[in-house]
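Sanity check

After download, print the first record. It should look like this:
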Amino acid sequence: MKFNLGIDKGNYRISFTLEGKRKLFFPGTTDELTAKKLLRRMEFDWDQGQFDLTLQSYKLKNRVQVTVKISPDQKEDKAKLITIWDKWVKTLNLPLRTLNDHYHCCRVMISKAEPGWDDVTWFVQSDLSASTWNTRRRFINSCVTWALTEGLIEGKNPWLALKARRSTKTSANPFTKAETQQIIEAFQDNRFCSLNSPCKHSYYVPYLKFLFLTGVRPGEAIALQWKHIDFENNLIEISEAMGKDLESSPYATRRIRKETKTGEIRYLPLSPILEELLLLYKPIDAKPDSLVFIGARGKGVLDIRAFRETWKKVLNGLGLEYRKPYQTRHTALSNIAQNHGLLAAAKVAGHKSLDMVSRHYAKFTGDLKGVMPDLL
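Expected structure tokens:
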């Protein structure tokens, strides 16, 4: 696919041919640099097999808009939470990645409810998870506090009275050893794979085993390159991750290479079973910058969405309680914590504090038989 950049009455357009028909796409910009950046993104998405045929994710209007101006005589508008929210966010000078993530989601929620700044009922009645509810409450509280300080509104801040919610369930729900084995064997045998499927479930086995054996985040595994595997010194370098390109749009699906969640590099030991797995999987002509886990088409980034669909199908077929692929991390770290202690689990996870490991990862997955002391 060839994409061409043009201009029409001051607005840039991107033309391409799809299914024999010429298409003209107007992203909504008069800036040449922005248009060229978008063209390169569309070319990349097409090469990676993740092109958005609706073109919606490429329209610049999908970016969060924070240019609302408050006029002194617009008392009704000033009382709206969305109005002071946009004004407040603009003062924060947030990077696009942050703006298009949590702040965008919170803005969408406010926009749909259209509440006054002192109305908390709509928020209290929302069915958000405890962590999301607490995060957005904190955002809105800061926004209203700022507006009161600036004299944009008058009164008391009702958001201060809302207490943080406590989660009734833990996010960690590791798999047992038997469940882990069941899942891997089902993938290997293509047990629940359609006969007409272009990609067999067994294709994901090396990636799946790597997750269970290392406890790395899925995005970190997808970003792994062969230069990060040191077979001579038996080390695996975890220094990058694949994440959504939130700098381009809050609706982005394209994944880009970025730093790890903590922003730090960590090294994991290359165990004999991991070494055997990677050596068997490594192509003869693999280059240092080549991805370890590539897409099913033999190139590009592994499609995490396709893997999730396969994962869900396998768990349903096995009759196992559904848990996200991220639970492979919890499973590995819980096993390490159980057998080698919290310090070891924290080191592998890349956490400086034991608190995170003890609260989320130190979950017992074994059999209680044999754990009780023989003597008092």
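If your output differs, re-run the checksum step. Summary of this record's structure: The chain has three domains: 4-62, 75-161, 177-251+268-361.
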